[in-house]
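User: I'll paste a sequence; please echo it back and then give the predicted structure.

Assistant: Echoing your sequence first, then the prediction.
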Amino acid sequence: MNYFVNEKSIVREIWKRTDTVLLIFAGSAAEFALNKAVDWLYYTGKIPTNPLERLFSTVEYAQKIIFLEEQMALATIDKITQIHQGVEQSRGKSIPDWAYRDVLYMLIDYSIRSFEVLERKLEINEKEEIFDVFMKLGIRMKLKNLPSNYNDWLIDRNIHLENDLEKGKFTIHLFEQYKKHLGHFRYFILIQIQQILVPKIVHKKLFTNSYFPTILAIKMYKFSRILKIDNLLKSILLPNKHKHELANIGKFENI
């Protein structure tokens, strides 16, 4: 059976772990709130209205692409493309090419950052493999001006970070919604985790306080894995109504 992502790929190792996936989207949630194209989220209103539900639906799409048979993965990518095209037609304008690349670049970057925070440093060939997988996704979506290799991506990633981010009213409102849906304690944890994950330029635009307490918390979480109480901790960090979605993320952990 053929897969869109090779069965031995480091991408599968990263995306099968519930905690790593949650970190990927924690980092992405911080950065995308700063993105100059964030107004597109407000056109449909779905993410600002219920960011957690949109998180879980996005994770579901991503894991289908990474873990399912190739034709099902391609169909999922095409469905994502159709959804975006429908929004563009409804609004009467196109999502900027650079905004599509920004999201793709976030998936690459936070896949690397999240795994390295929780597991180990990745080898350069593993980072290149992560790049290759998500470039396949971008090519299938017919995105323009994609970099041809990992080193070129590093350069373009920094250019995008310099040019495409600003803190505005949508940024502030999105973080208010994160707080509303998570509650004060979980929101505090989210902010601490984001400070560790995001690039320096994102950190500078969003945060002013230190992330030292979270470094200690990450070490404690790693120790909880040894004691096999990490599932309990993960359940504490999300509201009760999302326990089913949390369990769904981890359905590929034993493959």
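The CA atoms of residues 164 and 180 lie 27 Å apart. The longest helix spans residues 70-91.
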